[in-house]
Q: What sequence folds into this?
């Protein structure tokens, strides 16, 4: 069906929805867009690098959902097969998290490959979420890269609809987390001059509504449209609104012209969960005014746009009720087993007998981290987190998306969930700065000769890189006795005292 063809609808029937492909479905926006499209009756094909990262999403069993595993850097013919049969394709991929300083080059490479594959597959339109910003030489490298991606997507000849947005306010977004942590932790803020820059943030629900309605609005095809919320404010005003929403005393903002984007990004890294690598391009972009100049999107796809305070309140409400659907930490490449091939691997294995069923032990294990703590020597974990932040790692501030459940691919403080099997096991891989590669595994086994209860096995593995890695392992080994033994006892207490465990 092309946009000029009428839709043949019989009496009592609903119009046929075109099949759409969604890239970036394991990321922040894509992970919310896919279920939004499904709710509207669109057949959705998620094209993802790791299908396993979607296995715990609540919409995974939807009858209109397909999941195709394909890397966007794959050869054209492979990617074209993944897109075949889709009339529209959402391009929601960004390499900033995984490619570091080379993100712009990687984004261009992926966009060109996707554009060619979409042409070969017969995709009729591409929909892309880009960034607002004034044109010209003053445009930051990050926003300029977003424009370059727009151009690269058009090179394949498929009509491209670009929605340009400023800051997206939503629970779990990188921009929202930066704003929230800065305001919560700093009663007095020494800031660059960009706090007086005007911006037009948009609530994530409004951004998703625009993306969904694009598909059924033929007038948007091939257009570049600007989207924003109902208010134009400064970043200083955003901070004030966040403080009021959190019930905090007045925050004092002191602009200083000497703070560079590099210094700003390092400060963001130390105060918020966002790394300096991700914060720097974002900080550079804050000098650009990001305001909607053309309201064509609002005219073509009218909706009630939330104001700044409404958007913040909605996001905070999701955080406080543990309903954060996706988070900026979701994106990224999942490491695989080949990293462990060859070389010396140090192992520290401990176990404990637990008088509780596997389900109770599993619940206790999967509550570690974030606000829940680590069951033992939390102060040591906090010290290690601070040390990690100081050398450029994520530290503990990423926390966890939900206080009770963990899914494959979730961030967990400075760990990443690389394996989870209900009532049986949890596998974590360290993302802290280390002279090597570390994994922490928990396995629940049946207890020999006993009908009730089980054994919890905790295994730490470390593959060192060079002599520094070997020295690191032997330096931290004495602390394992304090931390890991205490954790096992904590798991045992929690499991045996849980309702229905049969313990005390």
A:
């Amino acid at each position: 069906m092309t946009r000029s063809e009428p839709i043949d609808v019989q009496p009592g029937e609903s119009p046929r929805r075109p099949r759409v492909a969604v890239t970036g479905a394991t990321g922040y926006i894509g992970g919310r867009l896919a279920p939004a499209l499904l709710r509207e009756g669109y057949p959705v094909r998620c094209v993802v690098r790791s299908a396993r990262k979607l296995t715990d999403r609540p919409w995974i069993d939807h009858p209109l959902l397909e999941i195709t595993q394909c890397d966007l850097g794959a050869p054209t013919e492979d990617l074209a097969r993944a897109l075949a049969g889709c009339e529209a394709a959402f391009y929601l991929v960004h390499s900033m998290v995984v490619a570091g300083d080379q993100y712009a080059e990687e984004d261009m490479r992926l966009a060109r490959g996707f554009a060619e594959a979409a042409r070969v597959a017969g995709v009729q339109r591409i929909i892309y979420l880009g960034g607002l910003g004034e044109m010209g030489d003053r445009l930051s490298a990050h926003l300029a890269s977003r424009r370059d991606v727009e151009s690269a997507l058009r090179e394949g000849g498929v009509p491209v609809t670009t929605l340009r947005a400023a800051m997206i306010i939503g629970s779990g977004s990188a921009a929202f987390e930066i704003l929230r942590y800065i305001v919560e932790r700093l009663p007095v803020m020494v800031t660059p001059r960009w706090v007086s820059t005007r911006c037009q943030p948009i609530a994530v629900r409004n951004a998703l509504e625009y993306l969904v309605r694009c598909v059924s609005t033929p007038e948007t095809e091939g257009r570049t449209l600007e989207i924003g919320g109902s208010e134009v404010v400064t970043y200083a005003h955003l901070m004030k609104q966040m403080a009021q929403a959190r019930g905090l005393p007045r925050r004092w903002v002191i602009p200083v012209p000497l703070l560079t984007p590099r210094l700003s990004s390092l400060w963001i890294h130390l105060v918020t969960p966002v790394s300096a690598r991700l914060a720097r391009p974002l900080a550079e972009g804050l000098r650009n005014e990001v305001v909607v100049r053309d309201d064509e999107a609002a005219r073509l796809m009218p909706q009630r746009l939330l104001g700044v305070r409404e958007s913040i309140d909605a996001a905070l409400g999701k955080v406080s009720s543990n309903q954060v659907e996706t988070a900026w930490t979701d994106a990224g490449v999942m490491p695989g087993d080949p990293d462990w091939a060859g070389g010396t691997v140090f192992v520290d294995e401990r176990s404990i007998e637990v008088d509780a069923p596997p389900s109770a032990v599993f619940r206790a294990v999967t509550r570690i981290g974030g606000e829940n703590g680590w069951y033992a020597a939390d102060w040591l974990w906090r010290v290690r987190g601070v040390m990690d932040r100081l050398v450029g790692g994520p530290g503990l501030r990423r926390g966890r998306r939900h206080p009770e459940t963990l899914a494959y691919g979730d961030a967990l403080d400075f760990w990443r969930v690389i394996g989870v099997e209900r009532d049986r096991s949890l596998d974590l891989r360290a993302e802290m700065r280390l002279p090597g590669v570390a994994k922490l595994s928990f396995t629940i086994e049946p207890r020999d000769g006993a009908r009730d209860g089980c054994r919890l096995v905790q295994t730490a593995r470390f593959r060192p890189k060079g002599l520094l890695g070997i020295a690191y392992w032997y330096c931290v080994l004495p602390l394992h006795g304090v931390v890991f033994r205490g954790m096992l006892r904590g798991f045992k207490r929690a499991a045996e005292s849980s309702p229905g465990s049969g313990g005390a």
